[in-house]
Design a protein that fits this description.
The protein has about 425 residues and is α+β, with helices and mostly antiparallel strands. It has 13 helices and 16 strands. Helix 2 runs antiparallel to helix 8, helix 6 packs across helix 11 and helix 9 runs antiparallel to helix 10.
Length: about 425
């Protein structure tokens, strides 16, 4: 086995057919990272006949006295089921990269450990996952654990919406609350569209608080992925919002009056009256909501007669699937549920394109206890998503002396 440098073209040819392929392990992603302070290297792993048996994009920076820490985003692309090959790989990495000033290499192969339903119940278990983990650990890779939250470089849990059924069946499979929120968004005048120019100025205002990346990063990413990158927006049609809000209020007012008349009717039995009183209270609440919506809609129409954008997302298409790379929304309009309708628009679009699935990106692996990410899970899993749990991160120390010195000085924090 040899570790060699290969060209981006060689790497892409190998990577696109590998079973652990993903859009992070592409020269396109590498080119994006080059523009933002990272160095990029394409490693090839060859057998004795110089045939590629593995490869990886690694990105790295000098962090300490000329020494480097590297990361293979959702790599390396390699067969980890052969313990001898994994051991030899570790030895070669230490020998080659260690001499080149690398202290540590982090990998997180795109290997599914389990497939689960939207409630977190295991549907499928990778029978090789324990063997792969044992092989890596035996070779000197340090597993960072079966993390549940966002402890790693990339999420270990993702939610995917399968697109292999007709669109009506897909919609009817959603959680009742999710269907309600999609309809509510549409009735509130939310309209979703693809941005032809792929301009992300508005979207960046929604996402800059949750990501340290500058707007130039997203522009570069979209430019590099070309036709495989798409930008979606959700916009309030303020005129429709006013019309629909008034219509909803008037309908509920008529219903409320009818309930009140029945309550006042002397022929109404006490038992029926109690039920009507409960309905009246529910109707009163709805009236208040619809009234507030009318006020909001009227003000918005004055302010934004042409409408106002309230949510957006970047999607990357890869390997006949779509991946929600980043999304954001204006929290002032969260009551209108624009993110729900935006995802539904994507699902509809990509179903028509006959893609395999829409990956809604990160969720957390805690399905029993409430936590600060429970809302995130409920929103994404409400689309009847399946959950993919990945193997997680492994570190391999390439130069013990330098890395231990680096740690002892607190530089790794």
């Amino acid at each position: 086995m040899k570790i060699v440098t290969i060209s981006p073209e060689q790497f892409d040819r190998y990577a696109k057919t590998h079973r652990y392929r993903n859009y992070y392990q592409t020269s396109v992603y590498g080119n994006t990272m080059i523009k933002f302070g990272f160095n990029v290297h394409f490693l090839g792993i060859t057998d004795d006949s110089n045939t590629l048996i593995g490869a990886s994009l690694i990105i790295y920076k000098e962090v300490f006295m000329g020494h480097k820490i590297a990361y293979a985003p959702h790599g390396m692309l390699f067969n980890y089921e052969n313990p001898n090959q994994v051991k030899e790989l570790a030895e070669k990495l230490k020998k080659i990269l260690g001499k080149q000033g690398f202290m540590l290499l982090k990998i997180d192969p795109y290997i599914p450990a389990t497939i689960r339903d939207h409630e977190g119940n295991i549907m499928n278990f990778n029978n090789q996952i324990n063997l792969i983990t044992a092989n890596l650990e035996s070779a000197g890779f340090i597993h960072q654990g079966k993390t549940l939250f966002f402890e790693g470089e990339k999420p270990r849990w993702e939610a995917l919406v399968l697109l292999n059924k007709d669109i009506r069946t897909i919609f009817n499979s959603f959680d009742k609350r999710t269907r309600h929120k999609i309809r509510k968004a549409a009735n509130s005048g939310i309209e979703c569209y693809k941005e032809p120019s792929k301009n992300i100025n508005i979207l960046y205002n929604f996402i800059k608080r949750k990501s340290p990346k500058p707007i130039e990063f997203y522009r570069e990413l979209i430019s590099n992925y070309g036709d495989d990158a798409e930008v979606y927006y959700a916009k309030i049609n303020t005129e429709i919002y006013v019309i629909n809000s008034r219509r909803a209020y008037e309908r509920e007012m008529e219903k409320n009056d009818q309930i009140a008349e029945k309550i006042q009717d002397i022929n109404t039995s006490p038992k029926l009256k109690n039920g009507l009183l409960n309905k009246k209270m529910e109707s009163d609440k709805l009236l208040n909501t619809y009234k507030n919506n009318m006020v909001q809609a009227t003000e918005l129409l004055k302010q934004y007669p042409e409408g106002v954008v309230v949510a957006g997302a970047i999607v990357i298409k890869y390997d006949d699937s779509a991946f929600l790379y980043m999304e954001g929304f204006d929290s002032k309009y969260s009551n209108l549920n624009p993110s729900y309708l935006l995802k539904w628009r994507m699902i509809d679009d990509y179903n028509k394109e006959h893609l395999k699935y829409l990956n809604l990106n990160a969720i957390v692996g805690e399905f029993e206890r409430r936590n600060k990410f429970s809302g995130l899970n409920e929103m994404k899993l409400g689309f009847n998503s399946i959950i993919t749990e990945y193997i997680g991160e492994f570190d391999i120390i390439l130069n013990n002396f330098t890395y231990n010195l680096y740690k002892s000085l607190g530089k790794n924090k």
